[in-house]
Amino acid sequence: MSNSIDLKKGLNIPISGAADLRVKDIAKAGTVAIQPSDFKGLNPRLLVKEGDKVLAGSPVLADKKNTDILITSPVSGTVEQIVRGDKRKLLAVLVKADAAQEYVDFGKNDPAKLSAEQVKEVLLKSGLWAGLIQRPYGILADPAAAPKGIFISAFSTAPLAADTEFTLASELAAMQAGVTALAKLAPVHVSVNSSKSAFAGMKDATVHLFTGKHPAGNVGVQISHISHIRKEETVWTVSAVVLAAIGKLFTQGKLELSRKVAVTGPAAIEPAYVEVLPGTPMKSFEQFYGSADGLRVISGDVLTGRNAGVEGYLGFFDTQVCIIREGNTHELLGWARPLRLNQFSSTRSYFSWLCPKKQYDMDTNLHGGPRAFLMSDSYYADVLPMDIYPLYLTKACLAGDIEKMEKFGIYEVLPEDLALCEFVDPSKNYIQDIIAKGIDLMLKEMA
């Protein structure tokens, strides 16, 4: 192993509702959604109409700016509905799945014998190019760009995150094929959290060992310790599940996106894993939450996930569903109550710190409303193991000051990297939204 990096800063959130390491059967989804909003930077052009037949791997959307980038169907079936919102914005393409699945044949290939252009061509045709994320800004990777590296985090430290060693234990060969393919495009870096990890022996890549609390598993944090992103530089990132899909694309010749997803959360009934496709309706997880009254159903983790609701769908990159109670009640006396043994505090404000192994039945209650930022940066810097000033970066984004945004690290972060800062923020500000708006401004003015 090339190096070992021990992160001293961070915070593990002791929320209850971790999934048992078992796969539970659920009813197969009859309809799957392709959501353009899953792919930041995509300007979608619709390639199908209602009633069209598609195979798994058939093009459904294309990017208007770069027509080579396609979004393909994860299932074979019939285009059931084109869902549009305000001003006819395309929200989703719903595909009714066939009972027996048929796949586009992309041809089996040994990625070690392919050129970079051949690898790129297969990824573009299959739609898996959309699984490559470009930093800065977290947008679709530009096929014409020359990144200085491709970074993969083989573990997650997010609250109640899916155990990658469990979910991808049977996908080692596919992941190795994926690494070999991506290595044709740029140097590959794989980060693990144990020298005994099943992914620690990856070939054609530099393997890094990261230890520490959340956000040690965030690929953005890992990049900041391996190779800082400077102005005019780009890197690409790939999630572990997309890496496995890339490997299967080459070894099996078809688009196979099924994955084990952890259904978790304090309000989840018997949390466990299920095997589903991205775009699966949240109604398919109904047995885990029963009645949705007073509950929030999140696609992703509690810090960075999207409130999908029971009418929503699983995100393309998500490997977790979290079910949590809505915190819509007021607490008598609030912070002034003595003891508060059932409330977690990152600053030891309550006596609950005397029970370090306790898990908490958390809800969405903010226990206060937004107010002016504190002057001290230490609240945020203590949980962010990156060489940036999170408070000053956030204020620069609020002010729309591009020069200061560059100075304080906008090229290095995505909103998810500052999720813990938002969690511990005594001012109750929506820091992730502020960073996202800052990135949008950079895209508009600088890209």
Fold topology:
Layout: E1 3-6, E2 31-34, E3 44-46, E4 53-54, E5 59-63, E6 70-72, E7 77-84, E8 90-97, H1 116-126, E9 133-135, E10 139-140, E11 150-153, H2 164-167, H3 172-182, E12 188-192, E13 206-211, H4 219-226, E14 235-237, H5 240-252, E15 259-264, E16 272-276, E17 295-299, E18 306-307, E19 320-325, H6 378-381, H7 390-399, H8 402-407, H9 419-424, H10 431-445
Parallel strand pairs: 1-13, 11-12, 11-14, 12-13, 15-19
Antiparallel strand pairs: 2-8, 3-5, 4-7, 5-6, 7-8, 9-10, 9-14, 15-16, 17-18, 17-19
Helix pairs in contact: 3-5, 7-10
Defining traits:
five-stranded mixed β-sheet, 10 helices, alpha/beta, globular, seven-stranded mixed β-sheet, 447 residues
Low-confidence stretches: none
* Net shape: globular
Helix run count: 10
State the major sheet.
Answer: 7 strands, mixed
Number of strands: 19
Category by helix and strand content: alpha/beta
- Mean pLDDT score: 93
**Which value, in Å, is the CA radius of gyration?**
22 Å
**Oligomer classification:** single chain
> Strand portion, in percent?
15-25%
In percent, how helical is the residue content?
10-25%
What strand line-up does the widest sheet have? 1-13-12-11-14-9-10
Head-to-tail CA distance between termini: 36 Å
Order of helices and strands: EEEEEEEEHEEEHHEEHEHEEEEEHHHHH
Question: How would you sum up this structure, described in words?
Answer:
By secondary structure, the chain is an alpha/beta fold. Helices cover 20% and strands 19% of the residues. The protein is built from ten helices and 19 strands. The chain has helices at 116-126, 164-167, 172-182, 219-226, 240-252, 378-381, 390-399, 402-407, 419-424, 431-445, and strands at residues 3-6, 31-34, 44-46, 53-54, 59-63, 70-72, 77-84, 90-97, 133-135, 139-140, 150-153, 188-192, 206-211, 235-237, 259-264, 272-276, 295-299, 306-307, 320-325. The chain has a seven-stranded mixed sheet with strand order 1-13-12-11-14-9-10, covered by helices on one side. Strands 16-15-19-17-18 form a five-stranded mixed sheet, with no helix packed on it. A four-stranded antiparallel sheet has the order 2-8-7-4, with no helix packed on it. Helix 3 packs across helix 5. The protein is globular, with a radius of gyration of 22 Å. The model has no long low-confidence stretch (mean pLDDT 93).
